[in-house]
Amino acid sequence: MTTDLHTSIKNQDLARQDLSCLYEITKNLAAGTDLQESLNSVVRVLADMKKMENGTVTIVNPLTRELEIEVACGITATAQKKGKYKLGEGITGRVVSTGEPVIVPRISEEPLFLNRTGIRNDEQKKKSSFICVPIKVTFESSEQKVFIQDIHDRSDNLSIGALSVAVYYENEFGSQSEQDLRFLTIVSALIAQTVHRVQVINREKEALQMENQRLRRELSGKNRLSDIIGNSSRMQEVFEMVHRVADSNATVLLRGESGTGKSMVAKSLHHNSRRADKPFLVVNCSALPENLLESELFGHEKGAFTGAEQRKKGRFELAEGGTLFLDEIGEISTTVQIKLLNVIQERCFQRLGGTELIKSDIRLVAATNRNLEEAVLEGVFREDLYYRLNVFPVHLPPLRERRTDILLLAEYFLEQYCQENNKRIERISTTAIDLLIKYHWPGNVRELQNCMERAVLICDSNTISAVHLPPTLQSSDSVSTDSPLSLSGAVESFERELIIDALKHTNGNQTKAAARLETSLRIINYKIHNYGIDPKQFKVKS
């Protein structure tokens, strides 16, 4: 009776001790966001409150697939480095491999106990017991789950590591060890929850960083002239010049090949000026014959010409207080040139068939792809008008001279046309990117825009590939002239591109890349090493 009472009191004391210990562990784990520090606090509490020595948390290294000591109490850093195990090797390797806990009554009598750290002498082995429990994590990410399942070659084991301790039992090994096993199983579950929580926090941080980058890009785009895309040095020069002149009333002449974005720059000049809340009107001077162009620009009175059944206001009148953009200014006739010169000089005009002088307060922006200097020398463009227009010239570079912007533009158009066509295309393949960058783009940004619209429309997967690009991009003058590859060389090249694509999509994460390609991490690591690929170059810098 006395013995039973003593045992009962002892068990109650142990239970209270366990609860106190669990409280300290839970409090420490909940307070920390640094995983290693949190785990260190666990093994310290086990040593201080439960006299569980040499507490060790061992985690699977995703690259080597070996178990390595993450944190340990009472074990030197040198000894920790020695504590590496293959899955299934030793007690720790067996626990992680099977997902089942193990109790070793006497370390000295257990052949599977390898003592890799070398911290226990023969006398200590005779006295100490060893308890090891698996750490099983619940994954929200299917890619992480696939990786763990792939490590163990089974779907029901999600062990990422193990918690182990050495215990010195004064009396015969028995019920106390079973109670300690249950206690450590609870602790390992708390560790697993902490690992999961830290993973969620890290994912949320990554999501916030990505959202922050997206917002920064959007804000940068707004501050940097509306929807104009470009990070190249040539475009930075354009942005700088436009910023300088935007808020003035100076006439701007935009020079550049067709499709370089002159209309976009004109629109940005207006939206970044003090006239932004006033009209922005566009006239394509090459699209209308001379008589219609005059009427379009200056308006006409009723009966001014056949078909003029009522008075019509011209663009100079309609754009009052705002900006008038005259595209293809180099195509206008001499007659229209004279009238345009008069408006610029006198700030007033007359409608066709009218006598009333109408004052004009507009900001004039003109654009041309012609060599106006040659046109002046040839006598087809008035020299005085040229100087009136050429107050502040801005030269827009062709796309072939700003190749670093090609991928940026392509991804912008990809997102735009995916939204318009309600399609989900995630990326552009490496082969397609190479073709886009190597092509000479005679039609400039407009041609690239049309190219990406076509690619989105015909793409039936989540990736824009080379086959989705126009045949002109794959012609002999736009691709590499290297000697043809052998079959094995072509396969290796294609395989390398697939791996690079996966790493780009996963920000250099080999585990996610392996899951994406439906292969094992071991094979991916082998291929990465074999092909000389550096995953770090694909990581997004925050």
Automatic annotation (TrEMBL):
GO terms for biological process: regulation of DNA-templated transcription. GO terms for molecular function: ATP binding; sequence-specific DNA binding. It holds the Pfam family HTH_8. The keyword Lipid metabolism does not apply. Keywords: ATP-binding, Coiled coil, DNA-binding, Nucleotide-binding, Transcription, Transcription regulation. PROSITE patterns: SIGMA54_INTERACT_1, SIGMA54_INTERACT_2, SIGMA54_INTERACT_3, SIGMA54_INTERACT_4. This is Sigma 54-interacting transcriptional regulator.
